[in-house]
Fold:
Amino acid sequence: MELDVIEDWADPEHEFDLVVDYDPSLWLEIPPRWDDESWEDIGAWASDSARLLWQSHGADPGEGGIPFLAGTLSRCAEAFSPERFDTRVLLHISSPTSMPLPVFTAVRPAVGDREATLRALVRADDPDAVEPPVVEAFPSEDLGEGLRALRYVRQDDAREVLAGLSYAWRNEDIGTDTVLWTATDDIAQVLRAAKDIEQLTREILIRIWDGEPEEGGAADVR
Structure:
């Protein structure tokens, strides 16, 4: 899983974050901070989530199903739990026995030329791609003008080809760049999840903090 999509993204003081209204039968959000009173630690969150996932699919986990899934979720959280308020990480889980696919989304203040920034965010001109990425316009009513890119890269000397699916949008009205991406060496997994990921992009809400929470907190923007 590549994690550097926004590594060089400009980082001014920001006042945005994201709310994602996802289908809990397909998605599980990794908590962005571990001070939530709902769980003592990562292990407690993973165990509760594993049990609920098995229940939601109406399947018999057997003796080891819940502990095995809990271990997988715990490793995902340890690897991918976001530290920033403007970043969310969700796991696409088609069944309790499938490997979760992490999907990342983040919002920052808009910086630079729109077309150039969006192409950079979706890696439209990735020099490591084994073939030219497939890049398409993908506007969003909530997030603004956008691009989608599917690309295949071979990282370093690895034999496996990695598939990356990325979206990026600019909302000129509120001045934000939003990006969503996933990548894995299981190409079939990305292709199977593509329709659910596209639906997820339509459920992302940018929240603008007004800077005066004592007088009303944050305003949601559609």
Q: What stands out?
A: The first strand starts at residue 16 and ends at 20. The chain has four helices and ten strands. Residues 213-222 have pLDDT under 50 and may be disordered.
